Amino acid sequence: MTETPTIVLVHGAFADAASWAPVTRLLLDRGYAVLVPPVFNRSLSGDAAYLRSFVEQISGPVLLAGHSYGGAVITVAGMADNVVGLVYVSGYALEEGESLGQLQGGFPDSDLAANLVYTPYPTGGSEPGTDVSVKIDAFPAVFAAGVPLETAQVLAVSQRPLSAVAFGEPASAAAWKTKPAWGIVSSADRTINPDVERFGYQRAGLRRIVEIDAPHLVMQTHPAEVAAVITDASVELA
């Protein structure tokens, strides 16, 4: 491949596209084509289908980078023909047929589980759905550790919840089986047990695994290091 891929940055649960802002700025400044679509956090299958449709409308090769739950989304959406590589950032590298709950359940709980809020929402059907979010007062320490408090407080009150069904929904595919992939472990992560990240990456046989002494929102606290892994992957693919 000689064409530099478009880099598509995929956010995770309890966040939105703005969580990638520092890395987005660095990549744009270096001349990369970058897109940061929304993830609606309604279901793994639905979110992956939306992302795949988004990617398939991009002309040329695409490098997907997924943070946290976004890692699960790119695992499935990465089956699109024009996806040439995957980068997992503090993310879930699911096996085909495996759910978030199954992967995470094999390791001691992080600090996240005790700080979740469950809220019903209308689905248009006979049964309501359940939104999962992080307690606002716990968000800065658990989800946004390392981020300046003023910023963390804004992120806390603007978080995008994740539907509870996404935790138990199995991945319909595992793109890392056929696409080259790289991974970043946030070794100071309090949202996902870092061993969940390590296990998933090692099982997937990623080309390179980089450990950063960083919290969950590593894109906010260590944007240069994250951008370096993504650009190195892009260079290898080109």
Automatic annotation (TrEMBL):
<dbReference type="GO" id="GO:0016787">
    <property type="term" value="F:hydrolase activity"/>
</dbReference>
<dbReference type="InterPro" id="IPR052897">
    <property type="entry name" value="Sec-Metab_Biosynth_Hydrolase"/>
</dbReference>
<dbReference type="Pfam" id="PF12697">
    <property type="entry name" value="Abhydrolase_6"/>
</dbReference>
<protein>
    <submittedName>
        <fullName>Alpha/beta hydrolase</fullName>
    </submittedName>
</protein>
<dbReference type="InterPro" id="IPR000073">
    <property type="entry name" value="AB_hydrolase_1"/>
</dbReference>
<feature type="domain" description="AB hydrolase-1">
    <location>
        <begin position="7"/>
        <end position="229"/>
    </location>
</feature>
<dbReference type="InterPro" id="IPR029058">
    <property type="entry name" value="AB_hydrolase_fold"/>
</dbReference>
<keyword id="KW-0378">Hydrolase</keyword>
